[in-house]
Amino acid sequence: MFSLHAGSGLFLLAVLVGLQIAAEGRGAPPCKPGFSEDTYKVVLPDTVEEGRPLFHVDFLDCGRGAPVHMECNNPSDFRIEADGVVYAARSLQRSPQHALVLLVKAIDGTTQQQWTTQVRMEPPALSSQQVPEASVPPAGNTDLMEISFPSRRNSQLKRMKRDWVIPPINVPENSRGPFPQELVRIRSDHDKSRALRYSVTGPGADQPPTGIFIIDPISGELSVNKPLDREHISNFHLRAHAVDLNGNQVENPIDIVINVIDMNDNRPEFTHQIWNGTVPEGSKPGTFVMTVTSVDKDDPKTANGMLRYKILSQTPESPTSNMFTINNKTGGIITVAAGLDREKVPQYTLIIQATDMEGNPMYGLSNTATAVIRITDVNDNPPEFTAEMFSGEVRENRVNVIVANLTVTDKDQPNTPAWNAVYKITGGDSTGRFSVPTDPTTNEGLVTVVKPIDYETSRTFVLTVEAKNEVPLARGIHYPHLSTATVSIRVMDENESPYFEPNPKLIKLEEGLMPESALTTFTAQDPDRFMRQKITYSKLSDPANWLRIDPNTGRITTIATLDRESPYVKNNLYNATFMGLDDGKPPASGTGTLQIYLLDINDNAPKVFPQEAEICEKPEPNAINITAVDGDLNPNAGPFAFELAHRPFDVRRNWTITRISGDHAQVGLKIGFLESGIYEIPIIITDSGNLPMSNTSYLRVKVCQCDINGDCTDQQHIMAAGLGTGAIIAILLCIIILLILVLLFVVWMKRRDKERQAKQLLIDPEDDVRDNILKYDEEGGGEEDQDYDLSQLQQPDTLEPDAIKPVGIRRLDERPLHPEPQYPMRSAAPHPGDIGDFINEGLKAADNDPTAPPYDSLLVFDYEGSGSTAGSLSSLNSSSSGGDQDYDYLNDWGPRFRKLADMYGGCDD
User: Taking every annotated instance into account, which residue ranges of this chain make up the domain Cadherin (predicted)?
Assistant: First the structure.
């Protein structure tokens, strides 16, 4: 069994704890979340101070990682932390005769699962027999606390309840040493029979931060190796072990909790170095301003972390040096004096001090911060006019013009509702012709004209204007006398436009009024009663050009006949516009409208409608419905009388007309059959006017052949029904243009055929000239195109033999009739001295030359074809020409050649 002894140098906080867990054996049961014991036994002294740690309960979470919330059933006396350490919530006075049972509950924050254990707290008198007997500490260390392991009551593998819970060991932070410093000795009662080795595990020992706590493995002395910092780690959870030399566990491990006792080693720190707050001016004492806060890293449950606040200074000290106070515990700043005036002191600066040790100036640590309190504006200063009287002037009939600027002063903060002025006219403007909006930049009142002012009615205005702020004044403050001002406005006269009265002017007249008839006088009035001005009149709009106005008197007369049926008359009204112009400087004009209501007279004869109709040759029924139309109104229109004209005589013989209503009649056939065609039926229609008017209208009736449905089937009906006159004309024009194009194409083709035939005549030598159309419009080229030298006709003696044209040479444009035979070249004839002899010799040579062509070789005009009955013209008076020709065949060529036949045919006459 282990034992624990306390030295006189340390305060005895822990008592012996008996605990035993049946965990021996080869295998341990699976880990199950819950408290390590179902019941803890704790020995408490009779008197416990507030905030003192009492004991620790161990919760096994088996690596779940979920947060667990601890609570007890007596929170007024005991407080339990998340690490399982139970503290005294207040100072307790225990009864030495009774034990106290405390229930501790652990709640899973995620699944809301709960675990419960109980702690039996007994006074030392009741538990004296349960406390293990203390062993004698080793020599030389009699003051060291000794912790003994509970003894094992049996060696069977079962879980045993622990008899004791070890209270935490308190170690002050920032200890100066010397180190290592012994804290406690751990011993087992088995060390009497064999050698043991002791060790501790946990954070601070073999886990980070390592090396803080060490244990002597032989003596079991647990020591701290360096100063502790509570602000870094406030407590340590260690586990003590006892093993033999072979490493076999001889005792169940016991838990040791080491709490780091706080020392005042941290100053208070304000969360902000500069704090900003506001308070309205004129606030009453006790008005909350702001709260300043600071934090201290020391333990807030001790005096080391308990802070107190106070105001060190106030700037400026006006009107007093103590305008504010601060709650020394919460840091709340409130006002304590009246007289906050933003216009005098807009801002205060306070130096705030926070001191720990509950504000003890001797032992506590302090720090300071600055609190800036801005005094916000309230409407405690009304606007005041800079003058009692303002003036302005405006021309009549002007609107949206500013006539005066009203200036005010306000001591409140600019551009705030307490500074912005609102102006109101309280007198002198009964007709609402003025308004006073506020200039948002200057805060001035702008007296503005919103309705036209007539100089002839009002020449001056005296307004009373009041100025207020957008928000009401603060309580107890009244508007001064200077918040009201007087505005004098003078109206200036201007030349105003003449106006017609009434406008529009309506007159009623009968239509048909003749030209140069007087209608009415339409004059304008000049509103400028204090100006002598002349008005002249002119016409602006007269759509039908019916009217004329006298420029001086405004007398309106007609220049044309008024016709109610005119397209310019709408709903019997005719509108004309006239202008009146005065001679002011500058001139002003006004317009007026004259409306003429035209009364109907019977001046339009009725007409038949429709004017065209069609019926079948055998009509069934043989009637056409017609309507009478009249441009006049009732009673000058219907009912109408219908009758057929007496001429032509066949109208009444073939047709009949029957009135079926006041406006309608039927035209029908008297006979059972009427031949197809177009008939015009004269119908006399008479209206019902006071002086009736008659008119003969022609109904154009088309009689056509019809099918079984009674519809016309002839093509003319289709064209008449489907196409209008314009469409038919367009179609005819298209047809004519098409015919012209076809004709031009035919002419072109014929001309092309003629050219082709002419070429064929030149090609084929066997063609008869009488069977072809020959071209005679080509006479050959000029002299430069001839193949002979004309100079030989003038001077034959000088003709060179080599210049004579060979017999076989022809014109380039003549076509050879057949391959030329190879005849011997004929010799040139001798050159006689006379030209006549020269020609005769040439003719003889040509007649005797078998290669000579059948036309004159000296001049070729054109190819005339072959086979002509007139013989060849190639020689003049040739002996081979056949003598006289017979021209009787010219009689067979028609009347055009009869004259030639008479001249050359028949007898010698």
Answer: 163-270, 271-385, 386-500, 501-608, 607-713
Sign of CA dihedral 595, 599, 601, 607: positive
d(CA 175, CA 182): 12
Q: Decide: residue 866, CB within 10 A, 0-12 exposed, 13-18 middle, 19+ buried.
A: middle
Into which CATH architecture does domain 607-704 fall?
Sandwich (2.60)
DSSP 8-state symbol, 722 = H
Question: Which of the following CATH numbers is that of domain 172-261: 3.40.50.1000, 1.10.10.60, 3.10.20.740, 2.60.40.60?
Answer: 2.60.40.60
CA distance 107 to 113: 6
Distance CA 764, CA 870 (A): 19
Between CA 848 and CA 826 the distance in angstroms is 10
pLDDT in tens, 315-371: 999 999 999 999 999 999 999 999 999 999 999 999 999 999 999 988 899 999 999
Distance of CA 537 to the CA centre of its chain: 54
Quick one: average pLDDT of 746-775?
66
Degrees, nearest 5: CA angle 659-664-667 = 60
Statement: residue 576 has pLDDT above 90? yes
Cα-flanking dihedrals φ and ψ of residue 25, to 5°? 130, 175
Q: What is the 3-state secondary structure (H, E, C) of 795-830?
A: CHHHCCHHHCCCCCCCCCCCCCCCCCCCCCCCCCCC
Distance (Å, rounded) from C-alpha 404 to C-alpha 390? 7
pLDDT (tens digit, 9 = 90+) per residue, 108-125? 877 778 888 988 887 764
Integer-rounded Cα radius of gyration of the chain? 72
Q: Give the residue among 518, 601, 609 at the shortest CA–CA distance from 565.
A: 601
Instruction: In whole angstroms, give the CA distance from residue 684 to residue 456.
Output: 68
Closest CA to 537 of 500, 568, 575, 562: 500
Q: In the CATH scheme, what architecture does the domain 384-492 have?
A: Sandwich (2.60)
| Rounded CA separation 312/306 (Å) | 19
Evaluate whether 425 touches 434 at the Cβ level (below 8 Å): yes
45 CA to centre of own chain: 82
| CA 649 – CA 656 distance, rounded (Å) | 13
Residue 792: φ, ψ to 5°: -70, -25
Instruction: Assign 357 to helix, strand or coil.
Output: helix
Whether the model pTM is above 0.85: no
Helices and strands in the chain: count of H runs, count of E runs: 6, 54
User: Which of 492, 462, 487, 488 has its CA nearest to residue 395?
Assistant: 492
CATH classification (class only), 34-122: mainly beta
Strand arrangement of the beta sheet that strand 677-686 belongs to: 612-616, 694-704, 677-686, 641-644
- Strands (DSSP E) found in 585-721: 589-599, 607-609, 612-616, 623-629, 641-644, 655-659, 664-669, 677-686, 694-704
Report whether 70 contacts 102 (CB < 8 A).
no
Regarding the domain delimited by 269-376, which CATH topology (the fold level of the hierarchy) does it fall under?
Immunoglobulin-like (2.60.40)
Q: Specify whether the CB–CB gap between 419 and 413 falls below 8 A.
A: yes
* Strands of the 308-315 sheet, one edge to the other: 274-280, 366-376, 347-355, 308-315
Hey, CA dihedral for 549, 553, 554, 556, is it positive or negative? Answer: negative
Contact (Cβ atoms closer than 8 angstroms) between residue 19 and residue 252: yes
Strand 366-376 and strand 274-280: the pairing is parallel
pLDDT at residue 155 is higher than 70: no
CATH architecture of residue range(s) 499-599 = Sandwich (2.60)
For the chain, the structural domain boundaries read: 34-122, 172-261, 269-376, 384-492, 499-599, 607-704
- E strands, 482-534, are 484-492, 499-500, 505-510, 518-521, 524-525
Q: Do domains 172-261 and 269-376 have the same CATH topology?
A: yes
